[in-house]
Design brief:
Blueprint: H1 19-45, H2 52-73, H3 81-100, H4 103-113, H5 120-140, H6 151-163, E1 171-174, E2 177-183, E3 186-188, H7 190-214, E4 216-220, E5 223-226, H8 232-248, H9 251-269, H10 272-290, H11 294-304, H12 309-313, H13 318-329, H14 353-386, H15 390-415, H16 432-453
Antiparallel strand pairs: 1-2, 2-3, 4-5
Helix pairs in contact: 1-2, 1-3, 2-3, 2-5, 3-5, 3-14, 3-16, 5-16, 6-7, 7-9, 7-15, 7-16, 8-9, 8-10, 9-10, 9-15, 13-14, 14-15, 14-16, 15-16
């Protein structure tokens, strides 16, 4: 007795998309800022804020649009990135609105500019534009590997963006830093977008040159020293960061670019010597520029002696006010809407917005905020580890590293750990360029994570298998 059976190909079991998990987390990401908004209204006026419903619906709509686009165009993406960015953006909107209610800041604006213009409506508009760019990235960037084709174009684009603030009539000098351009009545910070473009260049370049950069000519004190001709790339990036610091007096952007390159270089080559060289060169460059650049000298003096009479009389008391805000917040804070961080002045809702969180939410609140940032970086690094192509790995680690470095230099400057850099806290601080650029950054990370987490397609059935006969007795 015999029987004939046809073999069949069993497809791989699909990994869960986790979109429902993302939707549940997004609900919390909207509810938490909404409760914070209610808390501020009760603290300031003793009643529910009149814009509570509009704020909740607006934030929920933005989050819902982002979720629908991710579900349709990146269904296997990391489920945490979008909720984490949403909750940070929402809390930033609440604190910006809370500072708009300060009579001290309103009177200061009227005295200096003749009128007061609230910042929260603009920040909500910037957030909507950021979500729109996030949607555009996911719809039109169907494969992150397409960006590899534009490696050297990205380098030119980054240089153009960095040089725009130096163009006469276009650049804008604000508080001694030339990092803004004025277009149609709006101030744009090109460096925020340049960090994404230059990460594309670094990823494409290092993917091709990593083998040559990993070679070592000699060993000195336990470190593998790279060959002399391979030092060229790091010297060029070091020189570019120094030029940014000299001509634009922008310590934050120079640290961001050089630090991002060194991190990506270490990941590409696995040579600890690059980290050592990078730290030494950044220290030499920073010290060298600080010796003759007055703007950088003032920031270093304010960092070393924030309570000195010379610093306080020179209108550089923001660091001192920030430290006192953190101190008065204690462990649990004074409560949202009940602090005095508006004494910092106009920078209270931008450079020093973390001081408001420190005073009104205390050490516990600041640690929660930093934990949210840490989770974004962790998910970005996890995406880099899961990426199947070297370009995706380097791009994900570069974007995550840039995000982490920006959080460090801003938080460190506000807390007095390092000199103030003038950069803004991602998603929290007031500023259109920062919010829009960081939403684009999250969009690219989501696209890479979708490609990394998407299960491989099942192999095509073999026609010869259909002709196979298995004879059984």
């Amino acid at each position: 007795m015999s029987s004939t059976t046809h073999t069949s190909t069993i497809g791989a079991i699909g990994a869960p998309s986790r979109r429902n998990t993302e939707l549940a987390l997004l609900a919390f990401a909207v509810v938490i800022p909404l409760f914070a908004y209610i808390n501020v209204g009760l603290a300031l006026d003793g009643e529910l804020p009149s814009g509570m419903l509009g704020y909740g619906m607006g934030l929920g709509l933005l989050a819902g649009v982002g979720h629908i686009v991710v579900r349709k165009f990146a269904s296997y993406a990391d489920p945490l990135l979008l909720p984490l960015a949403t909750v940070l953006n929402g809390l930033g909107l609440v604190v910006v609105w809370r500072l708009d209610q300060s009579e001290r800041l309103q009177n200061l604006a009227k005295a200096q500019f003749g009128a007061f213009s609230p910042s929260a409506p603009n920040q909500l508009m910037y957030s909507a534009i950021g979500i729109a760019l996030f949607v555009v990235v996911l719809i039109f960037l169907k494969d992150h590997r397409v960006l590899q084709r534009y490696t050297y174009i990205s380098m030119v684009g980054a240089l153009v963006l960095l040089l725009l603030p130096l163009v006469p009539g276009l650049g804008k000098d604000i508080y001694g830093a030339k990092i803004w351009i004025s277009v149609g009545g709006f101030s744009i910070q090109p460096g925020e977008f340049a960090k994404i473009v230059i990460a594309v260049f670094f990823a494409g370049y290092l993917m091709v040159k990593r083998d040559a950069l990993a070679l070592a000519s000699r060993r000195f004190m336990g470190l593998y020293l790279p060959r002399g001709r391979d030092l060229g790339p790091i010297i060029v990036v070091w020189a570019m960061s120094i030029l940014i610091l000299v001509f634009e007096t922008d310590l934050g952007t120079s640290l961001l670019f050089f630090g991002m390159f060194v991190v990506m270089l270490y990941v590409a080559t696995e040579r600890t010597s690059w980290i050592v060289f990078g730290l030494l060169m950044s220290a030499v460059g920073a010290v060298g520029v600080a010796t003759f650049e007055p703007h950088v000298q003032k920031r270093v003096d304010a960092w070393l002696n924030p309570f000195s009479e010379a610093v306080l009389q020179g209108n550089s008391d923001q660091i001192a006010q920030s430290l006192m805000a953190f101190g008065s917040g204690g462990v649990l804070g004074t409560g949202l809407g009940q602090g005095h961080s508006d004494l910092i002045g106009f920078a209270a809702n931008s450079d020093f917005i973390l001081a408001t969180f420190g005073e009104e939410m205390g050490l516990a609140g600041v640690m929660a905020i930093l934990l949210l940032y840490g989770l974004i970086v962790e998910r970005g690094v996890r995406t880099a580890l899961a990426a199947r192509d070297p370009f995706g790995k380097l791009l994900a680690i570069g974007l995550s590293g840039a995000f982490a470095i920006q959080v460090f230099v801003v938080a460190g400057g506000v807390m007095g750990l390092i000199p103030l850099t003038g950069m803004t806290m991602p998603f929290l601080a007031y500023g259109g360029s920062s919010v829009i650029a960081n939403w684009a950054l999250v969009g690219i990370l989501i696209r890479i994570s979708d490609t990394a987490r998407r299960p491989a397609p099942a192999p095509a059935p073999n026609p010869d298998a259909e002709m196979t006969q298995v004879v059984r007795p």
